[in-house]
């Protein structure tokens, strides 16, 4: 998709842009704006795989119900608790890497210990889903912060590369338009 987007802008630049200064300016502005958007998205992803005990808060809760969606090769799970009115979410990035049977064995009334990002603690009762960065029961770690970071890092490599390529490519298109104006 990103290749076709880039080719669209390059073709547009060659065919029309230089015939009309106004069109070149529009292409330059659109390409530069999209470049900035992709760059901002890259920046927002910078800490997604760098969670620590200092950047997360530990919570304890009692399991009410666990829902596991195994319709894809990377399952995801939702844990509803007695204490909180929302679902604690285990993303596909995590669910596809842990032993999903550990989640299936969670029983109603069982105590769980989980961590969420500090910036999400204020929303704990205000949103429907909050993704968790570690989960354990009394006698077992289902997944740790370190495992979470590894799984998230592995899942973010491709989007980061695509984001860098798109951002730089669109910046180059806007720069070429700027030079020709």
Describe this structure in words.
46% of the residues lie in helices and 23% in strands. It has helices spanning 2-15, 21-44, 92-95, 100-104, 145-180, and strands at residues 56-69, 76-81, 87-90, 111-117, 129-131, 134-137, 140-143. The chain has a 7-stranded mixed β-sheet. It is an alpha+beta fold and 181 residues long. Helix 2 runs antiparallel to helix 5 (145-180).
Number of DSSP-assigned strands: 7
N-to-C order of helices and strands:
HHEEEHHEEEEH
Radius of gyration: 22 Å
Number of helices: 5
Largest sheet: 7 strands, mixed
Structural class: alpha+beta
Spatial separation of the terminal alpha carbons: 28 Å
Contiguous uncertain segments of 5+ residues: none
* Average pLDDT metric: 84
Percent strand: 15-25%
**Oligomeric state of the chains present here:** single chain
Core attributes:
5 helices; alpha+beta; seven-stranded mixed β-sheet; 181 residues
In a few lines, what is going on in this structure?
By secondary structure, the chain is of the alpha+beta class. It is built from 5 helices and 7 strands, in the order ααβββααββββα.
């Amino acid at each position: 998709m990103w290749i076709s987007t880039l080719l669209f802008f390059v073709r547009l630049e060659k065919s029309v842009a230089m015939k009309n200064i106004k069109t070149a300016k529009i292409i330059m502005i659109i390409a530069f704006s999209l470049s900035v958007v992709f760059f901002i998205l890259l920046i927002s992803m910078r800490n997604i795989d760098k969670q620590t005990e200092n950047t997360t808060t530990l919570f304890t809760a009692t399991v009410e119900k666990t829902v596991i969606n195994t319709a894809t090769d990377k399952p995801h799970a939702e844990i509803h608790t007695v204490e909180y009115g929302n679902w604690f979410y285990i993303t596909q990035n995590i669910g596809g890497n842990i032993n999903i049977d550990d989640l299936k064995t969670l029983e109603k009334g069982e105590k769980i210990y989980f961590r969420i990002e500090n910036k999400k603690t204020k929303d704990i009762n205000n949103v429907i889903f909050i993704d968790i960065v570690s989960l354990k029961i009394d006698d077992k770690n289902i997944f740790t912060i370190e495992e979470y970071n590894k799984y998230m890092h592995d899942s973010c490599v491709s989007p980061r590369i695509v984001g860098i390529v798109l951002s730089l490519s669109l910046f180059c298109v806007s720069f070429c338009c700027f030079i020709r104006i």
